[in-house]
Design a protein that fits this description.
4 helices; 88% helix
Length: 136
């Protein structure tokens, strides 16, 4: 479970760092429109790294399903992975049709933020559930 610990920790760190570090800083330093452009340009790399780490952590957990609470953690991780995958595949293309500042853009952006927030909570919760129980 050492590799799981590393991958799940890195997955959590990437999610939190990009959301509350990079994106927040960009919107604090640049005008809103420019910060949005830069953040949008960074999204492909963010999602590729996050999804790759999530796949790795989830596969390791899948093969260690006998660990206490592994199945509950798998459900959380699969839900987070699905949410993170849906954002670049479905939500961002739908958002791109609408100009920033419009109701359509705001609706899709809100859904994107909600799914990202869910992942920010679900990933560390799953990790803590498994790692806490595996040490007992």
């Amino acid at each position: 479970m050492i590799l799981y610990t590393w991958l799940a920790g890195a997955w959590t760190a990437v999610l939190w760092f990009f959301t509350f570090g990079v994106a927040r800083h960009l919107f604090g330093v640049f005008p809103r429109e420019r910060a949005g452009e830069v953040t949008t340009a960074l999204f492909p790399g963010y999602f590729i790294v996050a999804i790759a780490l999530g796949l790795g952590a989830t596969l390791i957990l899948w093969f260690n399903r006998r660990a206490p609470h592994a199945n509950a953690a798998l459900i959380l991780q699969l839900a987070a992975l699905s949410a993170l995958t849906a954002i670049p595949l479905f939500i961002q293309p739908a958002m791109a049709v609408h100009a920033p500042g419009t109701t359509g853009f705001a609706r899709w952006h809100g859904l994107s933020m909600a799914l990202n927030l869910f992942s920010l909570i679900a990933v560390p919760a799953a990790s803590l559930l498994v790692l806490r129980r595996s040490k007992e």
